[in-house]
Amino acid sequence: MILPHIPPVITRLRIKPDEPAEGPPAIDGPRPPGKRRIHTDMTVAKVRYLVENTGLSYREIGLKVGIPHSNITNWKRDYGWQRPLHAPRPWDLIPTARHGRRQKLRTLSERLRAIAERMIQELEETPGVDLDKLMQALQVVKMARLEAMGRRGRFRSPGRGMTGFEWASREQAIRGALKEMRRGGVDIDRAPQEALDMVIDANLPVEADHPALRERGKRK
After folding, report:
1. What is the DSSP letter of 32?
2. What is the pLDDT of residues 38-70, one digit of tens each?
């Protein structure tokens, strides 16, 4: 007896967003115009799956899903997503000595913003108004805003030269960084020393013989 052919049942797997514990259910379709969250929960779920289960870079994930890779960086930070061990390291986890000028300024901007938030929180928790502390917080906010705006063509790190030339370049970098802060409205005398040290360090020329910049040898 020949049994009739029964085609196998094909089940299509689909990534579904997690249902929120409270509030309305997850939105699976296009959002209404005028909403701040322009991406659907389905898109966020797809990005999270690729971030936590693949070794693709943020740029590759963005091209695959169709969103800017900067959104992925913000989502990972805000939602606490964890990348697998074989995934490439993001720019903020690369050793500082290997950072380019753009990465150093981005790191500096984030650190200044963290200092400003910490100082503002201390002011909110302290009864009364500390004018000196308030002025310091305002200066850090200005510095963070200037670093976030970026500075193009203000200073270029010199090549390898004599010790005297390197010293002059270092002094020029410090003067240029402080001058740029004053031009942006920062009162250097009232700015915290911690924030000034960060600005100066981010604008110093890179040492050509820094251990982190040397070529890696073969492991023994």
Report:
1. P
2. 778 888 889 999 999 988 888 889 898 988 888
Q: What is the pLDDT of residues 143-156, one digit of tens each?
A: 777 766 665 444 44
pTM for the predicted model, two decimal places: 0.35
CA 14/CA 11 separation, integer angstroms: 9
Burial of 158 (0-12, 13-18, 19+ CB in 10 A): middle
Q: What is the DSSP letter of 72?
A: H
**CA distance linking residue 41 with residue 188, whole number of Å:** 45
C-alpha 105/C-alpha 101 separation (Å) is 6
The CA distance from 29 to 16, in Å, is 12
Query: Alpha-carbon distance 83 to 92, whole Å?
Result: 14
User: What does the block give as tokens for 143?
Assistant: 């510095």
DSSP 18: P
91 pLDDT above the threshold of 60: no
Question: Could you write out the DSSP letters of every residue in 135-165?
Answer: HHHHHHHHHHHHHHH--SSS-----S--HHH
- DSSP-derived 3-state class of residue 50: helix
End-to-end CA distance of the chain: 69
- Residue with the two structure tokens 């982190």: 212
